[in-house]
Design brief:
The chain is of the alpha/beta class. It has 2 domains: 78 residues; 189 residues, Rossmann fold, CATH 3.40.50. It has a 7-stranded mixed β-sheet, sandwiched between helices. The relative contact order is 0.10.
């Protein structure tokens, strides 16, 4: 019994010792394994990051070359296509920074002139407008939605054609304006509606906007809704509902080209956003190349009547 107990105790001690040694060895091997795995992972991630950076540099280079090509080819593509046309810009609610300069870049090579820019205040101050219109058929504009609609449509027409109604309310209608409306060949609409309107203000603003667009359309003038790629929220849905062609990327070369061709009559919604029909209009074709008059080559002396029979009155030989 004593021997068995001592043997059993020794066996247990040996087992525990083996376990302890195994734990120590395993801990060392495990630590080496973790370090090795971490090192391999860090190396792999470093390579992936470097490859991603190299690819990003390649794509940036490709994009830069594409932009340079577009900037160089754009003037030749649209040169003179809108020569002599007078274009106005109407901001509904506001006119985001950079939009006007991008429009000017688009129109410059085309030969068109930006002659008027106006920002329509939203919501409209119906009370102030009623004061200016007290002696006209629009006197009840503050309380009559039908009068509001008729007034807005009249304003839209006179933005293109000019008129006394626009002159009368210019100070109340626009928050800022420059140039001279009237005699326009095309109108570019930019929408930046306030987001904190109450129900009545929203209704009056909606009536004003839709009426202005209807009035512009009634003149037969080209009308295009314009915004940049980073405009948020987008107003392309608004232009679609009003049946107005639009360009959603005026800050890109493709958007500038689309704008010029939309002013030439291309219909649709062009740009890079999900709401666009396509990037560019189908009318994007090279313009006619003007033919230079060919000067006649001088004829040598004595050849003035070359090829004509002699007028001698004598019959030709052989007759």
């Amino acid at each position: 019994m004593g021997y068995s107990a001592r043997y059993h105790a020794a066996s247990l001690a040996a087992v525990f010792l083996a376990l302890a040694i195994g734990i120590l060895i395993g801990a060392g091997l495990g630590d080496d394994l973790v370090r090795s795995t971490r090192k391999n992972l860090e190396q792999s991630l470093t390579v992936d990051v470097q490859n991603a950076r190299n690819r990003a540099d390649e794509l940036a280079g490709d994009l830069g070359r594409a932009n340079e090509f577009g900037e160089r080819i754009y003037p030749a593509l649209v040169e003179g296509r809108l020569a002599g046309r007078r274009i106005g810009v109407v901001g509904l609610g506001g006119l985001p920074g950079g939009i006007t300069s991008n429009i000017e870049k688009a129109l410059g090579p085309s030969g068109a002139r930006l002659v008027a820019v106006g920002v329509v205040g939203e919501p409209p101050d119906l009370g102030a407008l009623a004061g200016d219109l007290s002696s006209t058929r629009f006197a009840d504009i503050a309380s009559n939605p039908d009068t509001q609609q008729a007034f807005a449509k009249g304003i839209g027409r006179q933005l293109v054609l000019g008129g006394t109604l626009l002159d009368r309310v210019r100070g109340q209608l626009f928050t800022r304006a420059s140039g001279a409306f009237g005699g326009l060949d095309g109108v570019l609409v930019v929408r930046d509606q306030p987001t904190d309107l109450g129900p009545a203000e929203r209704a009056a603003t909606s009536t004003l906007e839709s009426g202005i667009l209807d009035g512009i359309a009634a003149t037969g003038s080209d009308e295009v809704g314009v915004e940049a790629t980073d405009t948020d929220p987008s107003s392309i849905g608004f232009y679609k509902s009003a049946n107005v062609s639009s360009v959603d990327d005026i800050d890109l070369v493709a958007g500038r080209a689309a704008l010029v061709f939309a002013l030439l009559g291309a219909k649709g919604h062009f740009g890079v956003k999900d709401s666009a029909d396509r990037l560019l209009p189908e009318l994007l074709t090279p313009g006619p190349v003007p033919l230079r008059p060919v000067k006649p080559k001088p004829k040598p002396n004595g050849a003035k009547h070359a090829g004509k029979p002699a007028q001698t009155g004598q019959p030709a030989k052989g007759h």
